[in-house]
Amino acid sequence: MIGRTHGRVPVEAVERISAFDRPAKRAGATVRGALAGRPALREAVLDVAGGRHRGAADRLVLLGALAALPAALTGATDWADTEAGDDRVRRAGAAHAAVNGGALVLQLASLSARRRGRRRMGVGLSLAAQGLLGAGGMLGGHLAFARGVGVDQTVFDPGPSDWTPLVAGEPGAGPSSGRAGETPVVLVRDGAGIRALHDRCSHRGCSLAGGRIDAGAIECPCHGSRFSLDDGRVLRGPATAPQPVFDVRRVGEGLEARRRA
Ligand code: FES
Description:
Order of helices and strands: HHHHHHEEEEEEEEEE
Radius of gyration: 24 Å
Helix content: 40-55%
Strand content: 15-25%
Largest sheet: 6 strands, antiparallel, barrel
Bound molecules: FE2/S2 (inorganic) cluster
Number of helices: 6
Strand order of the largest sheet: 1-2-3-4-9-10
């Protein structure tokens, strides 16, 4: 998780390189046309081709089995953080893990069969594993795209970029909640100034207003992520995405906020 947190900044820098657009669009169209729906079947194609392709097919089965282990660990972490508050995620995630686990068992059995010279059985087991992986991929996609597991919880509501009246009481030394337009904001008094972050934790959406302030950071009450009050960066996971930060100003008797660029 730490690697993911620190990897985000260079990834965002890459997102801003518009020079990639033309070649990437061309490559995307070519790849879509040539490979749509087929990458998961490469190993099966090599199996069916047989002959000199057999060694490559066996190596792909082994690589796939090895790659499943880190993927299972990160998936289990995301699921464990989410299932406690969402029955649907608990069930779909458990099914996703069971189906993918079954596919892994079949691939290991296939490897064993291939090594014992029972190639036909090995290929059959691999094909069955790929059927399960298709179902597992569908469940995984549903968890990410429909249930938002692993998604930055502020990404579709980053907050107003223009000065907007802030509906809030007078902030104190502890966190309190407010609202800038439709966006929930957590406020903290810091000397003469006021610090403000998006109130919805980027990790799983808990309200940071229920958290605690410590050494210039706010700690989420749900899983303990810590965000800098200065700039919203992640000081401790499991969150991997920073909190949007707001500038606050006084206008007459009230307050206004806008998202910092
Ligand atoms: S919701 Fe998980 S750390 Fe905030």
